[in-house]
Amino acid sequence: MTTDLLICGLGPAGRAIAHRGLARGLTVTVVDPAPRRTWTATYAAWADELPHWLVSDVVATTISRPMVWGTQAHVVDRPYAVLDTGRLQSSLSVDGARVITDHAVEIAHERVILASGTELTAGRVIDARGLARSPRRAEQTAYGLIVDTGRAAGLDPLFMDWRADNGAPADAARSFLYAVPLGDGRMLLEETCLAGKPALSGTCLRARLRHRLRSRGIRLTGTETVEHVRFPVQGGRPGRDRFGAAGGFLHPATGYSVGAALTSADAMVAGLRIWPAQARAVQRLREAGLRALLALPPEDIPLFFDTFFTLPAAAQRAYLSGRTDLGGTVTAMRLLFEALPWRLRRRIASATLGITVRSHR
Fold first, then answer.
1. Pairing relation of β-strands 119-127 and 3-8?
2. What is the rounded CA–CA span in Å between residue 254 and residue 140?
3. What sign for the dihedral angle of Cα 318, 321, 324, 330?
4. Is 35:18 a contact under the CB 8 Å cutoff?
């Protein structure tokens, strides 16, 4: 049986494509090894990234001006939306789609071979299976605890907090505290390795988070819900028939992808050109940004983010969210490079351009 749209993978990106395809009246088939699994990760996006069609109760809380700490405090003048994971999943309904529980092992333009040996055909096939882990790929890792907001009283919502009160040695790979309200009197406190190759382990991040919370007087009960995060931030390949992290929608220097995928779902379903030349160029620049982050000495990471979050708001937004904004991305990276100390410029030039530069540190 042929269908209009065949989607492999039912994470947020795949489910968004299926949902919007059904909304357009297309026949949709979805393939996933566990299509009814409940999502457990916490998703968030800048509020201005979310599409108009997303139902409002998907947003659990909105932080009007989140805070960042490098070595000093910065306020980001841009609303940040923390999503209710359960509501997000249920709002992206795939009722009306044919759901197949299986693994896609071979994907072509109009054909999919499943692990069971079944062959499926469709007018269009989209790969939304995410990215497989590999030692060759940098990863983002995190260990989080969901606590009652009363236990975190006085702790402002934090987009990033790189302060050195997590017990890590000064020369060790850095991690930051991410702290956001989830609604219903709950708050996520998460120690995050932004990108590492290899990334910090969950065991390491757990110890750092507990040390950091103790140093701030936040007591735990031992009954907190735990959130584990681990995913590659490299490996996505832009293309007409790939979407979400598999299709290059994941920002390699931040790990964010859900907002971009939701915003682009309608255009993807309509078969519009979602990877114009500007977008491909931006993706290459973002990959260079990831190489720069990986090359920075751990002790200089807070300074790097101090510098980034003193850039003009438009430049910050272009780099964080401007998937097709080549001019804005170039401007943001230029301004950042010019504002950094010379010793960091040399390292960044070496990492991003592939030039061997001897360190004089």
1. parallel
2. 9
3. positive
4. no
- Sorted by sequence, the CB contacts under 8 Å of residue 255 that are 6+ apart come out as 140, 194, 195, 231, 233
My answer on whether omega of the bond before 198 falls inside 30° of 0, hence cis, is yes
Rg (CA), the chain: 21
Report pTM: 0.92
Specify the CATH number of the domain 3-60+84-129+241-269: 3.50.50.60
What SS3 state is found at 228? strand
- How far are the Cα atoms of 99, 135, 185, 255, 353 from residue 145, in angstroms, in the given order? 33, 27, 14, 19, 39
Beta strands 186-196; 176-183: pairing state: antiparallel
Give dist(CA 180, CA 176) in Å, integer.
13
Phi/psi for 135 (5° steps) reads: -60, -20
Picking from 186, 139, 182, 179, the residue whose alpha carbon sits closest to that of residue 160 is 179
The beta strand positions in 197-250, using DSSP E, are 225-232
How does pLDDT run across 190-238, given as a tens digit for each residue? 999 999 999 999 999 999 999 999 999 999 999 999 999 999 999 999 9
Q: Exposure of 312 by Cβ count < 10 A (0-12 exposed, 13-18 middle, 19+ buried)?
A: exposed
| pLDDT tens-place string over residues 80-104 | 999 999 999 999 999 999 999 999 9
pLDDT tens for 145-157 read: 999 999 998 899 9
**What spatial distance separates the first Cα and last Cα of the chain, rounded to whole Å?**
65
- Taking the CA atoms of 341, 344, 350 and 356 in sequence, report the sign of the dihedral they define: positive
Domain extents for the chain? Answer: 3-60+84-129+241-269, 139-232, 277-353
Q: What does the alpha-carbon distance between residue 9 and residue 18 come to, in Å, rounded to a whole number? A: 10
SS3 269: helix
| d(C-alpha 17, C-alpha 264), whole Å | 9
Q: Which fold has domain 139-232?
A: Alpha-Beta Plaits (3.30.70)
Distance between CA 173 and CA 45 in Å, rounded? 26
